[in-house]
C-alpha cells in the first residue's frame, strides 16, 4: 500500500467534476495526515519498546527528538524542523536537533523566522535562541514554535518549524492545506509529549527496579551475615554453657567426691565460662550502644606500660597452649596516656586474640611508640595474613574471615567493628597492613591527650581499686533484700551473711511492706522488676514515707542499658549495681551506705574457699 509523505497536490490529470475533484483532494489530504501521524507514532513507539526491552542501551530522549525532527521533515517536505532545549529557569537556550538544510542549488525559497524584534533567527546546531522569541513565534498565526515537553529536571524543549510562504511550484498554500499542516504539527507535538512522559516513567521505574534489586541484594547479604552471626553466637554461648552445666552437674553428682584442688579447679572453670558469656553479651551491647551513639567512656590518665603488661598476661595462657611466643616492645618515652583504660584494654585484647586466632606458629607482639601527638599501639603477628579483598570488609559487623588454619568460627565477628568505633570515640583510628602468608599488623592510633579527659563519673567504682572486704563489728546491721529470683537472692544473702550482715529476703512488694512493719533495715537492696510491682515505684513510695525517707536504697537490677542508671537514681535510689552482680562491688556499696568503719580501721577478711 502506498504511503503519502508530503502535502497533497492537485491531480490535474483526473477529468471529473469540481465536486468530485474536491472530494478526492479531501480524501487524499486526510490520508496524508493519518499516514504521516501513523508513521510518526510507529517510530516513537519503537523507541519506547527499545527503552523497555533494553534498559541499558534503549532509546533516550535524544532519539525521540531526532525521530520527531526526521519524520516531520519528511511529512512537510519543504520545511526546516528544529528542537531547542532550555536549562531550568533559563531565558536562553540552544538549538540541539535540526533537519538537514536544503542543498545550495535547490530552487526552494529561503527559510527564515523573525524574532520579536524583527531579527532573523537561524536554525543551526548549537545556535543560541531566546525564550522570549520562541514565545513570540508561539503566539503568531500560524505559529512557528510549540512548547514540546517540560521534564522532571526543569529542562524545557521547544519544537520550531520554518516553512516557506510559497510552495515549490510557486503556488500559495490554500486554506485547507494550511489547516492540515497545523493539525499534523499539533497532533505530533501532543503524541511526542506523551511518549516523552512515558519514557520518563519507564526510566524512573527502571531506576527504582535497579535500586530495589541492589537493596534486595544488600538485604540478602545482611541477612546472611546476621544468620552467620546468630549461628556463631549460638556456638559461643553453648560452649561455655556446656562447661558450666557439665561441671555443676559433676559437683552435684552423688558419690562423686573430688579433692579440694579438683573442686577449686572446677569452680574456676565455671567462673571463667560465666565471664566469657558476660563478655560476649557486652560485645553485642557495646556495638548497639556505639551505633546508637550512646556509649560513654571514662577517661583518665593511664599507665601505658602497666596496662600493656596486664593485657599480655591475659592472653599468655592462650599463646602458651598454641606454642606461640609473645613479645612486648614499649618505647621509653611512652609512659602515660589519657583514655578510658577499660576500653583501651578491650581494644588491645580484641586485636591480640585475633592475632593468636590466625597464627599457628611463630610470634605475636605488641609494640607501642609515640609519633607526634599520637600513640601507636601495633599488634603484629606471623600468621596467615589477610587478602586485599577481605581487608575491605574487616570492620563490617558480623564479618569473619574464612581460614583453613582456624579449626572453627571463633568469636562473633564483632571485635574489630567495636575496636574501630572505640578508637574513633577516643579521637583516633585503626590501620591495617597485611599480606597473605606474611602476617598482619593492626595499629590503634590514639591522641596522647584529649580535651576534658581526666575526671568522669565519680559514682563509677573501679573494681581493681576496691579495698578488701570490711569486717562487720556486730551482727545487728539489718539488710532488707527485695528480689524475686531465688538463685540471685540466695547468692547475695549467703555472701552478705558471710560478711556478718543480717539479711532478710522477700520476693515481692507485698512481702516487703509486711516485713517493714517489723523491721527497720539499715539498707534496702531493691530489684526493679518484681511480680507484683515496679521496684522504682516502691522506692518513690518509700521516699514519701517519713520513716524511710533517709533509708539508703541500692538498686540491683538487670537493667544495664544506656540511661538505666540515671533512671534509677532519679527515682530516689542512693546507688545502682547491674546484674550479673559483682560481689566485691556489692560489698563495697553496702559498707559505704551502712556507715561501717573503713577496712583500714576494721581490719581485713577473706571468704573461705
TrEMBL record:
Transmembrane segments: none annotated. It catalyses: ATP + protein L-histidine = ADP + protein N-phospho-L-histidine. InterPro entries: CheY-like_superfamily, HATPase_C_sf, HATPase_dom, His_kinase_dom, HisK_dim/P_dom, HisK_dim/P_sf, Sig_transdc_His_kin-like_C, Sig_transdc_resp-reg_receiver. The modification 4-aspartylphosphate is found at residue 527. Its EC number is 2.7.13.3. Coiled coil: none annotated. Keywords: Kinase, Phosphoprotein, Transferase, Two-component regulatory system. GO terms for cellular component: plasma membrane. GO terms for molecular function: histidine phosphotransfer kinase activity; phosphorelay sensor kinase activity. Residues 478-594 form the Response regulatory domain. Residues 232-450 form the Histidine kinase domain. It holds the Pfam family HATPase_c. It is an enzyme of class 2 (transferase). It comes from the Bacteria. In the N-terminal section; belongs to the phytochrome family. This is Circadian input-output histidine kinase CikA. It comes from Mojavia pulchra JT2-VF2. The gene is hrmK.
